[in-house]
Amino acid sequence: MPRVEKYSFGEIVIDEKTYTRDLIITPSKIMPNWWRRAGHELCLDDIREVLEEDIEVLVIGTGYSGLMRVLPEVYEAAEKKGIRVITEKSAEACKIYNRL
Hints:
By secondary structure, the chain is α/β, with parallel strands linked by helices. It contains 3 helices and 9 strands, in the order ββββββαββαβα.
């Protein structure tokens, strides 16, 4: 499983590789240069592919300042699949992800 080594505003280091754009990390891969349909909202279409993965927990980082809002449809779809959703500012989300 990929491991987050460092997170700071505008930068995340995963397994010794630096990323400067939003991304998705799954147990099996990293999806770099990911972008949401609406700047500070996360809708179901943004993460539909992630919900198809074999996961029990979905950790969502809401940005350095926590400005991204997760729409209710994301929580509802995850719940239907038995996936627990944890939403935190990105620095805390990275710590939680690493503990999984």
